[in-house]
Fold these 4 entries.
Entry 1:
Amino acid sequence: MDSEASLREAIVDAARRMRDAGLVAGTSGNVSARAAHADQFWITPSGVDPSKLNTQALVKVGLDGAVLEGGLRPSIDTMNHAAIYRRRDDVASVDGLPASSEPRPGRQGC
């Protein structure tokens, strides 16, 4: 499996684990990730329940928020994720939980 496919699988897995842990309900919450130092990232789509999420549903987005790949609308928090990635080259993933006021960055290697 190539690294981009692995990255997409990890996003789907993280979204499902957030749901299974009770951190999100229905279509709330979002997850994104990127390869090291990449200028684009994959993010969960808007309005898709994690139980129905698959890698083909994810949306590839540039750091300017432009959709690069995918047929669904990206998460409403896409621009927040993009802003984190633009400012923090060390951030590899971001999750957005409804109970928090901002998406949380994850550092590479964590």
Entry 2:
Amino acid sequence: MNGFEIKDPLIPLEEIFSGGPPRDGIPSIDDPRFVAAEKADFLLPQHQVLGLELRGEKRAYPILILNWHEIVNDVVGGVPVTVSYSAFPGCFTTVICCSMTGAVNPSGPRSADRR
């Protein structure tokens, strides 16, 4: 059905329907590219960004992009970070995780890990 094994469901499997993208259907951004604010011609003044400053380095992650990708794996100020955003109706949650030891987990996090 969705790549997961479902044992002893309370609802018959034939009555369960997909309600969103498939597994890994929301790709993370693992090598983000940035432009100066004045060159970001796809953004309008009313568009929101998620701002992050870490060890003197600044980033702006446009919500327009986070709506489609939800996860950005980046390095800011020499620190590996994961920016996670949920546009689920009424939620609009942001979580930023960072590894102050400098360790990077090359296998994740990924969008499917959050399901």
Entry 3:
Amino acid sequence: MATKKNTPANEPGKAPTDPSFWDGAGEDRLNWVEGKHFAQPQADHIDDRDIEKKWEDIKPSYRKTYPNLTEEDVSYREGEFDDMTQRIAEKTNRSRDQILQEILDWRDEDY
């Protein structure tokens, strides 16, 4: 009788520790961040234009949540969205990937 591998389905919220679990895991391995499994695509799998469009919608509520960010910090010229998200990351002591994921996950009714 084969033993059951440690999988997200049987241990939610825990990244499998057995290295053989990841053999052939492909994209699913990329969806584990800090021990949490994300069913939705992560920021690096989303088109930057989609993130930019969402940014324009949430920018006012984002600034209310982070009052230390200036208008200059949250504004950008065409082609400089990456620079803006890097500025926000530096000002909030987070990574750019965390900022992109936050933008993707942002729901105005939560803030």
Entry 4:
Amino acid sequence: MNETSQCEVYSETTNEWQFIASFSIRPEASPKLSSVDDQLYALGSCMWNEGDSIPDTRVECYDADKNEWIRKTGIEMFRSFQFVPASEEL
């Protein structure tokens, strides 16, 4: 199943929130939105699935004229490691 994330934008002109097209970054990835140079971007991150992290590194940009999200690139993700305390017998 291809899940999407709903998105709303606020219009200062009408003083209202309105739904726009959903982006394809999975909700479990805790996507973040950012506005840069009057462009709205959705950025993925890591999803947590029973202790494992699964990256969703997509970056999408909203095209207001077409009311759609366009995939731009991915984000480099560094692997994280789980550290276990060393024995006191060292």
